[in-house]
Design goal:
single chain; 272 residues; alpha/beta; D-Maltodextrin-Binding Protein, domain 2; 2 domains; 5-stranded mixed β-sheet; 13 strands
């Protein structure tokens, strides 16, 4: 009788142990599912553990562009350098410029956006920005055969019938709307299309960032010239989700180190 009682107790203990192990197993699976997007060694969330997924619009040389299918440019190298500092592998995904910030804000498709983003109050409502890594201005370019010159640019650009190409969602678009209200703003998805439209006489001018205009005119549109430069002092920064503040902190720390060790200065000299 005593043996039977002991056997029953052992069986009961074993059953409890099995149930307990099953509970632990289920809990572990739930924890793994909850942490699927978190890097094991970091407090921030990533689209893919171990990878920094970077959204960019590769049509904005010298900041980002595609050459023979490869991402190249200042922003690309900055993104790679940040990822290396964080111990992550960089992965670039292409999105149209004005689709990047909504995607970052929603926490989909990418962890950060690096695509010539200038910091402004409206954008800061959508996303968090890192500390700046570059400061740029705006320029307006026209064909050399145009009647618009550096002497009459402000007056001529603000006339009815004048069409000014801008990249949609950029500071160039905002500037033209504010300073040339009589002109027609013609938005394009990327800067390449802006210059192609000017070359095809579909628009009279292009307004975009100073460094981009310089790159385009020196390499592809030698028949165009700058008629106005605007010292806007626009800070370029990395965009991250407001729901992922620890990632912004980590990016800021990485940028601080990259500035201190001379990496940022070297990249600026290389690309600008």
């Amino acid at each position: 009788m005593k043996f039977k009682k002991i056997s029953a107790m052992v069986a009961a203990v074993c059953l409890v142990g099995v149930v307990g192990l099953a509970g632990c197993s289920q809990g572990g699976s739930a924890d793994k599912a909850a942490d699927a997007g978190k890097d094991a060694a970091a407090p921030y969330t990533l689209q893919t553990p171990g990878t920094l997924t970077i959204a960019t619009s590769p049509d904005f040389p010298p900041f980002e562009n595609l050459v023979n299918g490869e991402y190249v440019g200042l922003d690309i190298e900055v993104g790679k350098a940040i990822a290396k500092k964080l111990g992550l592998e960089p992965k670039f995904v292409s999105l149209q410029f004005d689709a990047i910030l909504p995607a970052i804000s929603a926490g989909t498709k990418a962890d950060v956006g690096i695509s010539g983003f200038t910091v402004d109050p409206e954008r800061e409502k959508q996303v968090d920005f890192s500390t700046p890594y570059y400061t740029d201005d705006l320029s307006v370019a026209v064909l050399k055969s145009s009647s618009i010159t550096s002497d009459n640019a402000d007056a001529e650009l603000n006339k009815e019938g004048v069409k000014i190409a801008v990249q949609s969602g950029t500071s160039g678009e905002s500037y033209v709307k504010e300073h040339y209200p009589n002109a027609t703003v013609v938005p394009y998805g990327n800067s390449n299309d802006c210059f192609a439209a000017m070359e095809a006489a579909q628009v009279n001018a292009v307004c975009t960032n100073y460094a981009v205009v310089g790159k385009m005119l020196s390499e592809a549109y030698t028949d165009a010239q700058v008629v106005k430069s605007v010292p806007t002092g626009e800070d370029y920064a990395v965009a991250a989700s407001k729901d992922n503040p620890e990632l912004t902190k980590a990016v800021n720390n990485a940028l601080k180190e990259l500035k201190a060790d001379g990496t940022i200065d070297a990249l600026l000299k290389q690309y600008l």
